[in-house]
Input
Amino acid sequence: MLKMADNQQAFSDGHDIGRYFRPFAGLVVPAAAVIAALAVGAILLGVFGANPLTGYRELFTGAFGGPDELAATALKSIPLMLVGVGICIAFRTGVINIGGEGQIIMGAILATLVALALPDVPRPVLVPLVMIAGGIGGGIWGAIPGALKAYSGVNEILSTIMMNIIAGFFMSFLLEDWLIEPGAIRIQQTKRLTQNADLPILPGGTRLHLGIVVALIVAILAYLLLFRSSLGMRLRAVGHNPHASRASGMKVEMSITQALAFSGACAGIAGAVLVFGSESHRLIGEGGPLAFTQSAGFNGIVTALFGGLHPLFTVLSSYLFGGMLAGGISLQRAVQVPQALVIALNGVVVVFVVGSLKLRTRVQRWAEGDIQMEDRA
Amino acid sequence: MNDFFTVAIITATLASGIRLAVPFLLAALGEAVGQRAGVLNLGVEGVMLIGAFAAYYTALESGSAAFGLLMGLVTGMVMGLIYAFITVVMHAEQGISGIGIYLFGLGFTDLLFQKQVGTPRPISGLQAKPLNWLAEDTGRAGELLFSHTILTYVAFLLVPVIYWLITKTTFGLNVRAVGENPQAADTLGVSVNGIRTAAIVIGNTMAGLAGAALALEIGIFQQNLTAGRGFIAIALVYFGAWRPVGVMTGSLLFGIVSSTVLQLQVQDVISGSVASIANMAPAVLTVIVLVVVSRRIGQPAALTRPFTRDG
Output
């Protein structure tokens, strides 16, 4: 009984989201959530007069049907991986980062500015440089709400949402005037950025570029940070129980700020990849911030939750969701149901994953022969 | 430059600011009720989108804006029941399940719009109902305050109503009790989950109405019509320190800043880039207010905590 009360306390104080990563949860719940979401999707497809089986077959073929499809899926999954890995760091520290959108944008902006300032730097130097610039831009945009939470007690959910709005308008401010492509047509976009910053296409004859390698490196670094370093140990300790961490001498404020800074940096790198890995090689603000980020700031939360808040599993789950996005296009072509269905299903997955926690605890307790205690709750 | 500073234009700008404040106000008042009961709904944006599409599509098919408004309200109510089930019954993490609701609303309304409507077709929105008996005697002020649609009057009338509901009624007392100390409320025989469900349904109904108000004001639907307004509404609750009058002040601030910026841009007083900076201002101000407020006024003590008798 006492143990459970403690659990409740830790949860309410620090969003103990590490709960999603108990061994049992790791497999059964995400699988059930996807099955449930696919069932909802099947109903929607049926309502729109499409054969759900045909729809899903097209979705699967479009996502994983051949080398080009696999590459397209990988391309779609890069921003999800980077944002998702960052979300792992924040959530494990007990900080909810809703600011992925803004962090992507600020990373993209800083990376673009570096490319504009240093167009003649050779490619092997400039490509890493713009990626780092992206990380710094996003990192700063994450550190601000982190510090506000740590030192002024500002709710990070709200401040990160506001930072999203500010970043969106900041991008449109820059692209209205200063960074807009010179010429008669006033589209909110920069000129084609220097070729020295283009992410190189990987060999193999597909459109896949170096961004996927960047994402994998960041994921491995995040894993090492979280689980193989003393810094990461402190972050997770703060996420598990901030009071105990403080009592044992940890600088909780510093950890919270670091967590959001790291988280933002990952999203910022995603922003840089979205610019220098895009077909147009520009920063494009036309159509609004959501069009540029492709909602990766939010969808990354989905993949991170789905990956059990573990950076390496998040890579896998991002690839899966990237497949949903890539396959959504084939689905639309084959059965005339818009690919927006995929975004709606992502939402359903989130709801099922977080909504099944209580059930999962019950099943787990039942497995441990401890059901009477839970019955009172 | 001088063109802007005429009484007529300033009055019109302020009046349009009041209209733009309505979706913020409705959504934020509703969110405030839910939060006073201890439930954070981060899905306001998604519910607003669903309410907006329901209102738009109904008005498009039936030709009746009022019927559209009703459908916005009803879909909001349904979303409230779903969200109550997720958070109150299933104890889902509120910050994250709200994002799920948002993504669902974003994708689902886009899906329905593309499938059922396709190309943007305008609808005729609500007609303004000038309260002549009030407007005539009061001149410019009357034009400013009494030349709106019924929905605008209702939205502002809801400020004292919600205030009364929260502070003067037994239901409001229970709402505050389950938001501050659900265990104590439970001991006294208050149904914590029942009160929270009711508060969530009220909040989501108002979010649906807010979306409907937006769609009918703009007269069109498109992907991501709300463009972050639902998220701003949540921040306005903190901005207004969970009090209806504070929430109204914040909503008016956001509404009037947007209408002024728009007007200045139309009049060519400011360029697009200056307009972007000006549009940023309320969000920056909100962050500053959050810094100040967080020290001074506490949020409902049990906000985001699911209720269990053990905890």
Q: What stands out?
A: Chain A touches chain B through 66 residues (CB under 8 Å). The mean pLDDT of chain A is 87. Residues 34 and 349 of chain A are 6 Å apart (CA to CA).
